[in-house]
Amino acid sequence: MTDFLYMKDANSNYIKVFKAIVTKKKKDYICLDKTAFYPLGGGQPSDIGKIHWNNNTSDVAEVIKKGDTIKHIIKGEKPEVGTNIKGEIDWDRRYNHMKMHTSQHIISGIVFDEYNARTVGNQIHADYSRVDFSPVNFSNEDLINIKNLFNDIIKKNLPIKIYKEERQNLIKRVNQQRSNLDLLPKSIKELRIVEIEGFDICPCAGTHIKNTRELKNIDKIKKESKGKDTDRIIYSLEK
Q1: Which of 9, 26, 135, 165 has the highest CB neighbour number within 10 Å of its CB?
Q2: What are the structural domains, with CATH classification, of the chain?
Q3: Model confidence over 20-75: pLDDT tens digits?
Q4: What is the pLDDT of residue 207?
Q5: Which parts of 58-118 fold into alpha helices (H)?
Q6: Strand, helix or coil at 83?
């Protein structure tokens, strides 16, 4: 098992460098006893970066989660099992993903509140992202409305908290459809919650910023039809 350092709270998403011990070495990957590297999943790309040990450095090209283990795909030499390493995350890439993931939660909340449409897919990138919604057909005026509401929300400097909560407790205080809670397997009893204070509460395993003031306004926004009553919003944030 790997201890997922980035899962603990909002502050843990800002870990850039960490120490760990190699627990497994294979042809193309290693496993660590703990890691701050985010693995591919939930529409968010994996972190990349470097590992350092004994005056050696290799690139972490991708990170993949398999059950309770995270595989760090390594380019170059790999340290032996039992080696103490220092992991270093490509912070610019990670921070852009954090901002994009939080912005996606805001857009999804706006669209549910304004148009009663649910998020049915998303893909985060460092410089733009897309979110799929259904059932809805957005007009150009709708896109302007979403952009303006988003820009208004981030100006409120809303704190963002990450914590764990029992599913049954959460059910009592949220709209299950708005939070996509009804889509999670009922076997999951404890959830990791990302809460944008006063606006959104949603189970999520991704990485996020600590306050909406870290976001910029939406720069560009457009839509694509993805079939009957399903629209994709593609957007970017100001630099």
Answers
A1: 165
A2: 3-89 (2.40.30.130), 94-237 (3.30.980.10)
A3: 999 999 999 999 999 999 999 999 999 999 999 999 999 999 999 988 789 999 99
A4: 97
A5: 91-115
A6: coil
Q: Is the dihedral of CA 74, 48, 181, 68 positive or negative?
A: positive
Cα separation, 118 vs 177, whole angstroms? 8
- CA–CA separation, 144 and 126 (whole Å): 23
Question: Pairing state of beta strands 34-35 and 3-4?
Answer: parallel
Cβ neighbour number for residue 109 with a 10 Å cutoff? 21
CB within 8 Å of 17: residues ≥ 6 apart:
86, 87, 88, 89
pTM of the model: 0.95
Q: How far apart are the C-alpha atoms of 194 and 12, rounded to whole Å?
A: 13
* CA-based max dimension of the chain: 58
User: How many whole angstroms separate alpha carbon 214 and alpha carbon 85?
Assistant: 31
Determine the Cα–Cα distance for residues 152 and 156; give it in Å rounded to an integer: 7
Encoding tokens for residue 156? 């409120």
CB count within 10 Å of CB 181 equals: 18
pLDDT digit string (tens) for 93-131?
999 999 999 999 999 999 999 999 999 999 999 999 999
Element (H, E) at 141: helix 140-154
Element (H, E) at 86: strand 84-89
